Amino acid sequence: MSIYYPAKSPKGPVAAFPLRSALVFFVTSFGFYVCYFSSRQIIALETEAETTASGGGAEPTETRCTNRPAIIPHGPQTRYVHFPRPATYDRGECVCNPVRFFVIVSTQRSGSGWVEALLNSHPNVSSNGEVFSMRERRQNLSSVLGTLDRLYGMDWLTSAAKNECTAAFGFKWMLNQGLMENHRDIVNYLNRKGAMVVFLFRRNTLRRLISVVANNYDRRARQLNGVHKSHVHSKEEAEVLARFRPELDAPALIPSIRTAQRAVRACLRRFGSTRHMVLYYEDVVRDSRKVGGGTSRMALEFKRGYPITGACSSLCMQALSRVQEFLGVPARELSSKHVKIHTRPLPDLVGNWEEVRRTLRGTEYSRFLDDDAE
């Protein structure tokens, strides 16, 4: 049997070469594409895992910030340093500057407005006021945590916003603004988020109660041209508000003091597992008063009802220096335009002073009658 072979075309191998080259090029390109896409997916998954493990939100990884400051705490302190990426604006050149989150926990009429104003005079500190004074932000746990997420994501624009790179970002939270009702979940959130707590309270509960009653009266009376003001920025306004001498309910005085102190103790106990410091209003005033055994200009101005424009750090403001150190910002000269309202001795502040004095005399709260307590 004869076998016939097809005649080979002289152009066969030459004609097949472009097809083979195209096939090899396609396979090679596809391989490079698969490798590149897979590597990007792996990087994305590793980034998400690192962010989740650190408890942070949408923060850039180490590879995004090649120009981070050299001095960044290591070890346990690392969890308190964040690199937030807000969704509503670009942090620009500040994206690689570390930020510490904080919250000032306090009670009304404990000097929190003054202390917050002092801290906000620092170029790298932004404290955003009483965020939870609005009921809709604290009507349930979900709204509370959602507000905290938005705040600590730095998607929060207030008058405390800085042109400079913010290094400490937080707000004020009063005990009666949903803090104590959800304390377990809030403690877990603060610890998971790496937020620090500054407790600010007042030792002389009697003076605080006097201020509370007087402030509640002004809510109704609106003594400053029909406007209620909890804080004033002029000596004249302070003098108008100081004219009112509230009469305290003597039979309810001791129970009121006891309730206020119990709330403070409960707060310190429930939030004790957070990274925190305790600051007392009286210490801020007293530390500013003592400079080499003398009296600082700032303390005199505050006690006499003048704006607080003196230099804190240069006048040995130890209390506020501790706060700045705690927040991880350089100690600076702090100032405020707040004016103290009740500057007179206790007997001149209360309409029924003798009754108040008799009620507290001989009790564990008699120390509040000493005007040197503040």
UniProtKB/TrEMBL annotation:
Task: Kindly state which keywords UniProt assigns to this record, in alphabetical order.
Answer: Membrane, Transmembrane, Transmembrane helix
Q: Where is the signal peptide?
A: none
Where are its TM segments located? 15-36
Return the PANTHER family for the record: PROTEIN, PUTATIVE, EXPRESSED-RELATED (PTHR32175), SULFOTRANSFERASE (PTHR32175:SF4)
The name this protein carries in UniProt is: Sulfotransferase
Q: Which organism is it from?
A: Zea mays (Maize)
Which taxonomic lineage does the organism of this UniProt entry have?
Eukaryota, Viridiplantae, Streptophyta, Embryophyta, Tracheophyta
Q: Which gene encodes it?
A: LOC100277054
